[in-house]
Amino acid sequence: MRAAIIDDDRRDRERLRSFIEQYQKDTGTEVKTELFSGGVEFLERFRADYDIIFLDIEMPGMDGLETAREIRRTDGSAAILFITNMAQYAIRGYEVNAVDFMVKPVNYYNFADKLKRAIDFSARRKRRYLLLKNGEEIVRIPAAELFYAEKEGNNLIYHVRGGEYRERGSIQGLKGKLDETMFAECMSGCMVNLSYVEKLGRDTVLVAGQTLPVSRRLKKEFVQKFMDYVGG
Would you say the C-alpha torsion 13, 14, 20, 23 has a positive or negative sign? Predict the structure, then answer.
């Protein structure tokens, strides 16, 4: 398990690290922790391989929400936990599918509860994989890294970071391979990863920078699944 702590206050960073060390002793869970003083420093070294990210909202330069948006452009499975001085700021965490938030000063027992939830969230998101054909090769990718998949004739087009894959298949068959709490159909033949939803419009949805239509028939169900996802 890998965790990042991003906070411009050194004392707060060290406090959270000490809590993680205590959690490891209490539960036997191994967590490798890295500390960063701001969003820019973190993103300069960022690869989508963190399980949990503790993120201060109020930071100079790039604040926590802006940092989280950049994270979500390439990583939909990391569990983001906001740390804030003012709870009302954390409400906007739904925009980036944050798992939860904590108000400073953080105490250990609250922290341990939130950390367990984040570990469960991350494990659930990274559990499933898709095997996709790429010419003569077969590529294994985490289902959490699929932006969306759309039907075209007898094929499915899988849109992932760095490109797309195309192979024969059906949306119904794909549904059985995906976490039903994480994916929803925005229109017939198009499954969307709710982790990458950036904006919901009247009849469109913005997913990883791509605008997709939302059908009238499926809109109510799609919106409800999205609200359940960000709320849960």
Answer: negative
Q: How far apart are CA 16 and CA 22, in angstroms?
A: 10
Does residue 213 have a cis peptide bond before it, meaning omega lies within 30 degrees of 0?
Answer: no
For 44, other C-beta atoms within 10 Å of its C-beta total: 9
Cα dihedral 144, 26, 93, 57, rounded to 10, equals -120
Q: Which helix (H) or strand (E) holds 35?
A: strand 32-36
Amino acid identity, position 77: S
The encoded tokens of residue 22 equal 């205590």
* pLDDT of 48 above 70: yes
Average pLDDT, the chain: 88
Q: Which of 182, 189, 193, 217 is nearest to 203 (CA)?
A: 217
**What sign has the CA pseudo-torsion 61, 64, 65, 68?**
positive
pTM of the model: 0.61
Residue 67 CA: distances (Å) to CA of 45, 57, 192: 13, 9, 23
- The CA angle 117-121-123, to the nearest 5 degrees, is 115
pLDDT in tens, 178-193: 878 889 999 999 999 9
The H or E element spanning position 95 is: none
In order of 87, 90, 148, 208, the CA distances from 20 in angstroms are: 22, 22, 34, 32
Residue length, the chain? Answer: 232
Considering Cα of 189, then 193, then 194, then 200, what sign does the dihedral take? negative
